[in-house]
Amino acid sequence: METVTQLTNQLVASYAKAGGINHLDGKNLPSKRVVTALTCDLLRLLFPGFFDEKLIHSSEIKVETAALLDSVLGTLEDEIRKALEYQPPDGLVKKDIATEARKLTVDFLGSLPRIRELLQTDVQAAFDGDPAAASKEEVILSYPFVEAIAVQRLAHELFLKNVPLIPRIMSEWAHARTGMELHPGAKIGSYFFVDHCTGTVVGETVVIGNHVKMYHGVTLGAKSTAGGQLLKGRKRHPTIEDRVTIYPGATILGGGTVIGAGSTIGGNVFIMDSVAPNSLVIYDGLDMRVLSKNDKNAALDFQI
Amino acid sequence: METVTQLTNQLVASYAKAGGINHLDGKNLPSKRVVTALTCDLLRLLFPGFFDEKLIHSSEIKVETAALLDSVLGTLEDEIRKALEYQPPDGLVKKDIATEARKLTVDFLGSLPRIRELLQTDVQAAFDGDPAAASKEEVILSYPFVEAIAVQRLAHELFLKNVPLIPRIMSEWAHARTGMELHPGAKIGSYFFVDHCTGTVVGETVVIGNHVKMYHGVTLGAKSTAGGQLLKGRKRHPTIEDRVTIYPGATILGGGTVIGAGSTIGGNVFIMDSVAPNSLVIYDGLDMRVLSKNDKNAALDFQI
Amino acid sequence: METVTQLTNQLVASYAKAGGINHLDGKNLPSKRVVTALTCDLLRLLFPGFFDEKLIHSSEIKVETAALLDSVLGTLEDEIRKALEYQPPDGLVKKDIATEARKLTVDFLGSLPRIRELLQTDVQAAFDGDPAAASKEEVILSYPFVEAIAVQRLAHELFLKNVPLIPRIMSEWAHARTGMELHPGAKIGSYFFVDHCTGTVVGETVVIGNHVKMYHGVTLGAKSTAGGQLLKGRKRHPTIEDRVTIYPGATILGGGTVIGAGSTIGGNVFIMDSVAPNSLVIYDGLDMRVLSKNDKNAALDFQI
Description:
Three copies of one chain form a homotrimer.
Chain A: H1 2-16, H2 32-46, H3 58-86, H4 97-110, H5 112-129, H6 136-142, H7 144-160, H8 166-178, E1 181-182, E2 187-188, E3 193-194, E4 201-202, E5 207-208, E6 213-214, E7 219-221, E8 239-240, E9 245-246, E10 251-253, E11 258-259, E12 264-265, E13 270-271, E14 279-282, E15 289-292, H9 296-302
Parallel strand pairs in A: 1-4, 2-5, 3-6, 4-7, 5-8, 6-9, 7-10, 8-11, 9-12, 10-13, 12-14
Helix pairs in contact in A: 2-3, 2-7, 2-8, 3-4, 5-7, 7-8
């Protein structure tokens, strides 16, 4: 036990030292666990019957929806209140926080029917765009994309309402589950589809048009973040116009970079400039070396 | 409470509108939660003693295996029956579904010993291929690859038996855990190994030979899916012959693309054509620009 | 029941056959489940107040820390003992294993304050380096990087102490959650930051300096592992000097490859040679083809 006391003293002394990684005696942060549970409940409200064990009949749906909404409303209001207390938006004074939390929560839940309409276009795009999809049910049950885009569209609503912390906790939960990071700030049009998802990153100030199809490993990122916090709020990420397709591993950087409507971007391409509408951008393989393994240089490089 | 009623009415009205994302009053889908639990149990049957807390002795193994198999048999049969009712394969009439579900389940469980033999070659390949592996036990306990390939080989059996939905739910569970998407349809030979896994995607109609080694971020994909559902069933993804090695980030597309036996594909390469046996394909760096940061052009691009 | 008996017999016969994928009648391996729970507890010790529901006050922190440390000490000691029994380091005889397990555990827990100091620099680097970060609290609560680097720094301590299996179980847990694989063997300097994380792989013998910033999909890997187990212990992975930035999708291979201090490596670049300090390495797009989609060749490749 003496050992534990000594270890404790060292560690507590380390907590006391100036440390940006402590959170003690501060205001209460939103709970990661509660926000995660809320996100699951919101997915159940968006896709009724898909994430429940038993068959739901229309006759019961109203009662069940009301019960779930009631629970979500109370819990979400609490978390939003904590987030606003922690980091109040400009102009919001302390005494108005509770009222504001209530208002934001009700407005947000009122946007669910509109979010469902958008998601319907995404599921359609996924089914239309993937010959391996056997049915829309398979898409909703097994495609990581559906979860990722549903969470982004939910988090985007909260982001637009300037709710701190919660949108990012939600989007990072989806990132952990799907491997795709869609920042809550990104503006994403209808009929969006990302196949496979893993490794795709869509930055905070990205703008994406309608009918855009992307694959895994695609980066829509910032050209340079050497300016760090000084760049906050600036458009740092590209714009993707309507009907663009982007193949796996393409990296597109920069706030002024616009991929024109109807273009196709090939796999593994690296782009920092705008591309005219209806373009095809590819590496055509001319500059790639194909050697026989009997070639000595080849053997040197790969020790084979 | 009035607010909740109003929100509920809006949302339920949205459910009632024609919507591809509802699942109400339909037939019961297989349960994602149950299929996930089944997959874990199947992994325990494949790797006895590895995923259990206590030491298992040979004397107990028969009783424990029988109990687990009995439980898996009943549960899997239920889920397969639901999947067949939901989307009956051509020629299967309703009254025969229960019998067919039983038969498919028993056949599938009878294939476990054969799957174990294949997995033994994969574990061997992982150990042989990675100098960082300290033991085969470390490989099984900590390499995401083992989980991913085990689930693929299980799901592939169900895919071959035309079981709807369940194989994809299984493979997407593994995708979420390992970051690698191995479609249940892919035909994968023995002694397969993918190191690191994250971001690797292997499409539905891929064919992979024996002793193939790949890294993370490798795409074996379709050249174009603009044809969408019209392409269903066509061979859209490449063939990788025996003893090929594919480095991280390589993208290989197309149903007619064949990577000849014994070839090595370098990192970040983009390929849409076949490669002769025993080739080495690399970007050799000749076309890459290496600039000093005092160079003005460099400074313009990256603002450094 | 007869079916189950038959299936059991087949499967148990398969267990009995020489099989590298069984673990029966052997020594007890460390438990994956327990090591995972321990890792979560260690994260709570590193970031007090961040992963708990209720507000922690300074007055309670000592008692709570002591209780958690006491529990971690006992459990970790058990798991380390099992790991040492399973795979005793050279020169450690059986009768000394329990004492050694105790010593290693206490030493390891004594290093937590030092690990916290390093992590503080990482959180600072993340906040400074990402304009999308609204606060350090947001970084700790929602950035996968923080979890990944915290687990790596913990696992690295155990790796240096030659504890078998446990460091890799820990790092693969973080890999599964964040998509980034930081091998416990890698030496990583202060003020490290990886944005987005998914698909980044840092190999066992990598050395990284201070103030290094990387993105997702970056590989610091081995040039060839065809030598397999013969290469064990050799430096196979690159060295990244101070103040280097590496953009998404870059692949850097080889034990002799050194990226000189202050350099910037562009996206999707493939490097197998050293780069002088203060260099900028990019694909400048000169060799990329940008075609109008009316071009016939383009149409052939992509069927558009």
